[in-house]
User: Fold these one by one.
Assistant:
Number 1:
Amino acid sequence: MAAPSYGAKDIEVLEGLDPVRKRPGMYIGSTGLNGLHHLVYEVVDNSVDEAMAGEATRIDVTLLADGGCRVVDDGRGIPVDPHRSDRRKSAAEVVLTTLHAGGKFGGSGYKVSGGLHGVGVSVVNALSRRLELEIDREGLRHRIEFVDGGKPLGRLVVTGKAPRNRRGTSVAFWPDPAIFNSEGTEFRAQTILERLQIYAFLNKGLEIRFRDERPGHEQEQTFRYTGGIVDYVRHLNHAKEALFKRVGHFEGAETDAEVEVALQWNTGYHEGIYSFANGIATIEGGMHEEGFKKALTNVVNKYARAKGLLKEKDDNLLGEDIREGLTAIVSVKMRDPQFEGQTKAKLGNVSIRSLVERVTNEKLADWLEEHPTEARQVVQKGIQAARARVAARQAREVIRRKTLLEGAGLPGKLADCSSRNPEESELFIVEGNSAGGSAINARDPITQAILPIRGKILNVERARIDRMLKNTEIQSLISAIGAGVGDEFDVSKIRYHKVVLLADADVDGNHIRTLLLTFFFRQMTDMVERGNVYIAQPPLYSTIVGKEKVYLKDDAAKERFLAEHPNHKNDFPRMKGLGEMDFGELKATTMDANRRTLLQVSVEQAALADGVFSVLMGEDVDARKHFIQTNAKDARFLDI
Ligand code: 0RA
């Protein structure tokens, strides 16, 4: 076979992009699905930069029917004039075929840019089997195409007039299956949508349209937020109960750097500070977050003292007290962001700390003065959190002292199993005394222990941890599990490797399950993390077949049954509560290891129980699934 003949231009191209094809992971993280989607972000980033420079107002992202992705913006367009290094080539060709050739690195016209993501469209070109670039500039439409990882099919040519004198850049690319050979080249709309929405939140007024043209996946969605990060905070607090309606907002700048903050408290306990540098999520935090937190603690304490809400004898509120239930966005834009840390998601620039601190100290103090009602609520919530913190510590102390004095005394209500091997031991926490009675009869006494818990352990909507710890039922639970609680919880000491919540599918059952999940999540986190917590699934329906009673777990199981037994005429009475099942039924449907189904609780679910009640445990399984998928997958939106 004849060796392919390369001209000088080809050799240069190969030199330009070869490193990317050799080690794609260095440029896009991985060649799995994450890396694949990175290509989209890479292209969109450039358009977003154009928007940040005040030159673009709209970005269209389209997943093409043939598997490609097209990103169009209405910015200035990549420059088309002959490049200074090689007059035969257009600047656009050089940008697409050379690493780091983008305008961003020359610093021309760009105030800020992502930095990390700035490796540019050339990387996308290198990892695509085809890329089509169209530029509308100075009234003309220009076009150039690349194949096989960035080889130009020709030079940039003018194909006609730019329609309606529009300007902007269009990049369409088809990822190379030879590169993305492990998980394929099929984009996931949801993944892209989530990212686009964040871009839209962070760039006030920017319109981002998404369109999926793939057969069977057709959909369209537009994001545009005139409130920017204020809308973002509202969105994050949407499923929660806001402490007050207003979202606080302030900004400030110095040469080469600007900061914008939006914040609102909710009645929950989770602290959600989401920070960004040049539009990139800084999941590991960094200097901007440090500056914000320090100033927040300072400003709120000062305000509380000035208004007499904290007396001279009172201790200052801790940062964690003030941040309880806080949802905040801290967004900085700056030259040369330094990304550090394990995942390069921590902002290292020391100078930004003092800017954010200064701006927050000044502007947040103003905001509190201007909004005394909200300010008072913030302080009151902080004071309550501080009290709860002290009370929880005291309650833990009491429990610890009790176990020290009384040894490993087990609670009287516990019907323990005889096995002392945690691996095979199961603890069923059963709602209601009568249900507890059936469970004791239904169990395998060697491996299954029963702890009955009264239905109304706590008749507070959202129990605070300190109140939970003082509750005798919870104290029994702690000693039954036998591994301590809170900071002292030691998962290696748990007496049962399965801790199973068994409660009715009604309102009270949901309540107690949610409380217990919240408790486990906050006070026995490792146990949840290791997958030791389960939810028992008693059946929802039964029906009679011949002489036998058949149990059906849920509506889906009922549908399946009907499909398999089209002539079935008997009805499907809804199962009554646990207390009304006899022990034979309870054993057959819920407890017998060979016949039951248990739902293993993930950290995500437990986290959601901590913040979101109805959605997690509600009837609407689809809404729940959707919620968990969209909120918990991304660690930043996980309520931990
Ligand atoms: C280099 C210089 C200029 C703009 C761009 C690149 C640019 C790149 C992309 C990529 C996607 N959309 C884009 N829009 C613009 C500045 C050009 C000038 O000063 O006119």
Note: The chain is about 40% helix and 20% strand.
Number 2:
Amino acid sequence: MQHFPRLELPGRMSFRFGQHLIKPSVVFLKTELSFALVNRKPVVPGHVLVCPLRPVERFRDLNPSEVADLFQMAQRVGNVVEKHFQGTSLTFSIQDGPESGQTVKHVHVHILPRKIGDFSRNDSIYDELQKHDKVGEDSPAMWRSEDEMAAEAAELRAYFQ
Ligand code: AMW
């Protein structure tokens, strides 16, 4: 029998994501070791993030239980965002360290629903991921509103209830 980690829904506590404090309204899934949140500046519709609860910087800093929990969450969240955003494929990506494009010093898996023609050159998604939140490319004016993010999180949360 396949084992899945216990699924929990976010409570009232805020979540730490590196230097950011994340409101529970934008978190749509939580387990004992991981959580999933919607993105304030998605590269494609449905671009979400899955993170360990423990705020460690590098993938190598996770213990085996955290890796297992994080990837099982990534698998389940991937299925949901692909369906919800009418994708036909997924890109999973971890920018692990500053030279790979990581800006938030807290491990996170990017999950991006993909569909035919979304980029004229398919792997351009990696260029976009690398630069979308860089200093100079990013500013608060480009972020989605809290209401929009909370509404998306509520839609995604419904799949896990
Ligand atoms: W990294 O460049 O560190 O691999 O990715 C950081 C991601 O986190 C980016 O997609 C960015 O848009 C997103 N992000 C940063 N801060 C927040 C926040 N407060 N709420 C939601 N998403 C965020």
Note: Helices lie at 64-84, 124-131, 146-157.
Number 3:
Amino acid sequence: MMRTHYCGSLNESFIDQTVTLCGWVHRRRDHGGVVFLDMRDRDGLVQVVVDPDTPEAFALADKSRSEYVLKITGRVRQRYAGTENPNMPSGMIEVLGKEIEVLNTSETPPFPLNDEFVNVGEEIRLKYRFLDMRRPEMLQRMRFRSQVTSKIRTYLDRHGFLDVETPVLTRATPEGARDYLVPSRTQQGSFFALPQSPQLFKQLLMVSGFDRYYQIAKCFRDEDLRADRQPEFTQIDIETSFMSDEDIMNIAEGMAVELFDDLLNVKFDKFPRMTYAEAMRRFASDKPDLRIPLELIDVADVLKDAAFKVFAGPANDPKGRVVALRVPNGNDISRGKIDEYTKFVGIYGAKGLAYIKVNDISKINNGVDKESGLQSPIIKNISDEMLQTIIDRTGAQNGDLIFFGADKAKVVNDAMGALRVKLGHDLNLLTCEWAPLWVVDFPMFEETDNGQWTSVHHPFTMPHGTVEDLKNNPAQATSVAYDMVLNGTEIGGGSLRIYNPDMQKAVFEALGIGEEEAQEKFSFLLDALKFGAPPHGGLAFGLDRLVMLMTGATSIRDVIAFPKTKTAECLMTQAPAPVEGKQLRELGIRLREKVGE
Ligand code: ASP
């Protein structure tokens, strides 16, 4: 080995020892005839001093520039009083460099990697990702990620889980996204799909009797990317046999509890469980951020006969929803701010944002000047009685503000759910740092825009009730599915699975997957279910998101070594890239001319 110690590992306990370090020049300064080199490696920084007493080393130090790779041998010594740096773990000491070997030089990096780093824009960081990751901040995150996976493996190994790899070249697995396809050379015209998740394989492993499986698995989904999505991402994928949904949640919760305790010293109580229906009703979200103490209150029943049609319309529409959102002390939210919030809910399709400022409740019922008690453009068309009921139901106090959402339920949920979160942050209402919970009993199906049913989770999820219940009333069916939610982000989700072929067929039918299509795509699964499939279930965690939350990063790209952009490109390798005609011919593929060429 070239080195004896990592730079960042040195401290006062090494004083007077001779050490050899290998690393990069983080910063170089001349000071009164001596050269200071802050040397950096994976473990951190240490200050090296080189003085002219050792002319050879001095000359090399003098010549070195940022990001040169040096091997330095020297003696650890206490820093002079007053020159210690308490912000650096090695800040009480320095290394008096005696011998220097320049292992490699470096061009000036496209952006500084030391304290002079300013965010140069993600594009350039991604293009030079190998340099970006030299920055201590990035390195810390990647190190943390490695600790997370290591802890998870230890936890799952301890609980008897077997790590099994499943294929990456496979058939489409319906998780609801578009597939990445790989053309087959040996069977021209046929394609592999990259797995959207190992879902079916892990179920088959249960049929094989493996009992407890896990895998830290790459998954691929060709979706239009949002801030927290990547075309390839990592799941901690888990499946078990002979366990109830409660058992599975407990074992997964235990893993999360241990992770947060071990790595962040955060202690969680038992996670609350909330049904999907309750989460939607109170927070208009299936992943409610429980750090925010605001809640939605349904008021459609109160406003059915209101003269204000914007409310009465949705209040009388079976697919409509009308809610009130009380903001304590919101009375001083300015007109300008309210306009901003109106624009904000517009993003989610809301046509406006009605509000009432509550000045003096006692003035509502005297019939004369309710408008001095409540300040709002809409109250003229709402009766005193209705207003009073709304005040009572929301618990509004003088000084509060009430926002309203009234539209199709989906629009109201999207808009008011997002507004609730935005208000929580804008008004600094967060009551704690971490708020985990389980959301359970999701609907089995949801209606797509073209009126068909699709699975809320995936088609292998077990419904509550019997095959008959499902057939008679698919719209009302709920599933034995559970999501782990943390601070308003879904970090994991899963379900008990169907292990009875008749139920599986009934679900396919409800989804409009006919017998023939089911046979063509899933005959292996339907076969497996006939040969003694055990009751089974599992879940998967999104590793990237989990690490993002735990490190406080704002994008999952910041916790992935080599991520792709929003347009699913790698700026560093420039993948995807065109291929040679010969390769295409071997695959039996001819490209169509691009439109306009
Ligand atoms: N395969 C599911 C997913 O990727 C997770 C599960 O049901 O275990 O979301």
Note: Residues 136-158 form the longest helix (23 residues).
Number 4:
Amino acid sequence: MTKARKVEQLVTGMPATDGAGVELVRVIGQPRLMDLDPFLLLDAFRSDNPDDYIAGFPAHPHRGFETVTYLLNGRMRHQDSAGNEGVIEPGGIQWMTAGRGIVHSEMPEQEDGLLEGFQLWINLPASHKMTEPGYQEHSAEGIPVESRPGTDIRVITGETSQGTKGPVSQPLTAPLYIDVTLEANTEFKETLATSHNAFVYVIKGSINIDSNLLTRDQLAVLSSGDSLKLDSCDEGARFLLIAGKPLGEPVQRAGPFVMNTREELHQAYHDYQSGRF
Ligand code: FE2
């Protein structure tokens, strides 16, 4: 028996400034949608004005969760306290498990032109918040594209109903992260794990989910169910479909730290200030 997921809540991203003065759109992690277990934050950045992004995100810490950067346009240089360094290129993904702690910087590797991408924060369960930091990095070539009529699906993690598997592995929250491009007036159908919370975020064009029209920068929190059906409108559409297994644990967050208790947050600040990251 199938139960189609509906739109439970429609959220429009709100303008925000973060890092050293980067202009972005905050979609998850804002008053209208503080989180969607296990997702803690979704930022979208898209600008061809260097003033909006040039300041970047200088050295800052993280503990207790994962940061996932997916770039569509432009280049971002990443450097961390453990000596790791690299550049994320268009179509590339960096899946960083901050675990017990990392200090890193994320800076635009360009002085002009379009910078466009997303950062998603995914929580870690209490049992893994203090895990060793690690990365899963893949360039555009490493991300499989599933083709259906009028449809391209980039699979970053998880597996589609047609068996295309993304390169990133995260069994703790078993996420699905796909980037879907639809031609005009094209239907998209996909199965989704009933255990997972799921959302759709529109990058371009517009889509219709069960008579709810979503346009650029709008996110639909989906109700429970095992499938999703939507249609693109006349101009076609591009959207992210993301799902993950909720952790159901208490969340205490302060800036770059997300733990289970206030005590652990204090500990995180203390450890960071005493240079233990
Ligand atoms: Fe960061």
Note: The helical segments are 50-53, 262-273.
